[in-house]
């Protein structure tokens, strides 16, 4: 099963996510769905604090959690819209 092995922040807003298969995902948090207000606290920050991972998601202490499944889904939608 695919898991997150490492997560960090690039340029203050982009998640740098390393997966167990060796692939890297660069995910711009400004592209989080605006309809989902659980991410509003992230959108309001100029620079995101360093996130953590439990292997299945990216999360911030006392903050939102973003599941790997959701990230992969959003990336597939973006690729299909090109």
TrEMBL record:
InterPro entries: NE0471-like_N
SUPFAM superfamilies tied to this protein: NE0471 N-terminal domain-like (SSF143880)
This protein's name: DUF2442 domain-containing protein
Organism: Clostridium aminobutyricum
